[in-house]
Amino acid sequence: MTDDTSAPPSCAQTGSLPKKIVSVWELLSDTSLFIPPYQRPYKWTSKNVQQLFADIATHKDKTSCRLGTIVFHQEDKKAADGQVRTVKNIVDGQQRTVTLLLTIHALIALRGEKLDRKDIREQLTTLEKRMIDPVFTNTISKTNLQNNYREIARIVGRADFTEEHIDFLLNKCACVTFTLLDISEAFQFFDSQNARGRDLEPHDLLKAFHLREFSEADIPLKVKTVEHWENSEVKELSALFSKYLCRIRNWSSGSPARCFTKEDTALFKGVNLETVAHYPYVEQLRMVHHFVDHYNSQYERRIDGQHLGFPFHLDQIIINGRRFFEMTAYYQGVVAKFNGGAASANRFPTKLDGFAGSIMKAINTYEGRSRDGDSYVRCIFDCLLIYYYDKFGNAEISRAIEKIFVWAYRLRLTRVAVHFASMDNYVRNNNNLFRRIKEAVRPSDFVNCNLPTLTLAEIKSTKTEDIKKLFQEMRYCE
Q1: Can you say how many angstroms the Cα of residue 29 is from the centroid of all Cα atoms in its chain?
Q2: Tens digit of pLDDT for each residue in 94-143?
Q3: SS3 at position 377
Q4: Bridge partner residues of 76 (DSSP)
Q5: Rounded distance, CA 251 to CA 425, Å?
Q6: Of 341, 345, 358, whose CA–CA distance to 474 is shortest?
Q7: CB neighbour list of residue 127: distance below 8 Å, 6 or more residues apart
Q8: Are 390 and 334 in contact (CB under 8 A)?
């Protein structure tokens, strides 16, 4: 079984303790275990629980069963009573560890007093006294904890989950643990393959990188800053970077943008303002960064209730650490206004005029909109509209929508089929309007661009009558 674990790199031994193979009994009886507040919510579901127990059942007749890897960051912490104690922060492997804790709680509640084997009873009694009791406040975590406990209770409460199964779970099932003394080293485990050799998602690598980039001054803000990320669905985060942010940043520079892979994560790595030299280009970022924080921390804000957001832009240099997570949350909100199938005239803060309202209605309702090729064209439209809005807001937004529509949907009308590669090739090789927005100083530099007119003979698509009709009404089709 694996969760959010990643296998150790072949190096990274400096400042670390040797790896250990520990049984479930040894792992859970360790009173120094601690789940740090920056960890993501508990997201395992009953499906993950069933897989865990299926793995255990498969190996129960063998001498041992490896459940995966757990990575610790060991540090000394000052307790409330002033005493310093050593803790092992679970950097990777939280999902599995919490599930094992739930399993022991269920065994104690359902089987503890009924067990014939004295050794197992004693082990469970000891675990009941020594196990950590992590507190989760996140709603997602609470729901999954409740549902998974029920699922575990169903499994371990069955007569066919014998005392031999319990013994095997406690003493023969084991995890490979790595304990590191350096937090940066610990997070580097995210940058390698996980225990089954699968690559982590690119946005997972970005999360690990930017967690390491938090400045000392921002550490107290880490939990709150990362909270929005942790509460986001994996698919939502993946789509944000792969479908929108990566493509906009690449297309605006004239680069290809088909898939978002781990090789593309450099797009979202920039400068650490605490460590970067005082190069002239960095100074404006440094000034804005500190001014925003200074403004929001002044006592006057307690009176006027104002809050100044950082002025993010899609093609800006990324500020590593806290600002990256804030940027992600900001653009999740922006994308929610414009993403395919959801954008409509009433989503805009200002009233649309001209053909803009009809365009928004047509692209959400025309017959062929659900085909793969049409979704690629819609992606071009959404990305370009988001990019324009990011730079000029609502200024001339109706005219911008008209230009974006004509340019993007020309691809749809002139092709029998639109393939994945067609989207990328079209953007870069046909009067790239992303570059035009990037270079524009004012809205007129974009909305006054000239676009070619289609002839009826050039139209090859089907199920796009509403789109063709709008082209004709706008005099872009003769």
Answers
A1: 32
A2: 899 999 999 999 999 999 888 999 999 999 999 999 999 988 888 888 99
A3: helix
A4: 86
A5: 10
A6: 358
A7: 25, 28, 29, 104, 108
A8: yes
> Hey, how many other C-beta atoms are within 10 angstroms of the C-beta on 294?
10
Do the Cβ atoms of 288 and 232 come closer than 8 Å? Answer: no
Residue 192 has which token pair? 């390698």
In the numeric block, which tokens belong to residue 204? 């997972």
For residue 393, what are the CA distances in angstroms to 355, 388, 389, 443? 19, 7, 4, 10
E strands, 61-150, in order: 65-78, 84-92
Could you give the CA distance from residue 23 to residue 70 in angstroms, rounded to a whole number?
12
Question: Residue 381 in contact with residue 409, Cβ under 8 Å?
Answer: yes
Could you tell me which of 325, 319, 218 has the C-alpha nearest to residue 273?
A: 319
Closest CA to 213 of 250, 233, 183: 183
Q: Mean pLDDT for the chain?
A: 88
The span from the CA of 385 to the CA of 275, in Å, is 35
Long-range residue pairs from 387-390, CB within 8 A, at least 24 positions apart, any chain = 387/248, 387/252, 387/314, 387/434, 387/437, 388/437, 388/446, 389/334, 389/337, 389/338, 390/313, 390/314, 390/334
The answer to whether the predicted template modeling score (pTM) of the entire model surpasses 0.90 is no
Domain limits of the chain? 20-200, 236-473
Cα separation, 37 vs 39, whole angstroms: 5
173-180/65-78 β-pairing: parallel
Residue 22 parent element (H or E):
strand 20-23
Residue 84's DSSP bridge partners are 78
Contact 381, 342 (CB under 8 A): no
Measured in residues, the chain has a length of 478
Please count the helices (runs of H) and the strands (runs of E) in the chain.
21, 5
Longest Cα–Cα distance of the chain, Å, equals 89
Which residue type, as a one-letter code, is found at position 457?
A: A
| Under 8 Å between Cβ of 245 and 268 | yes
Q: Where are the alpha helices (DSSP H) in 339-439?
A: 356-365, 372-392, 397-413, 420-429, 433-439
Range with top average pLDDT, 107-121, 226-240, 303-317: 303-317
Calculate ∠ Cα 352-354-355, nearest 5°: 95
- Report pLDDT digits (tens) over 13-54: 334 456 789 999 999 999 999 988 777 788 898 988 998 898
**pLDDT recorded at residue 287:** 97
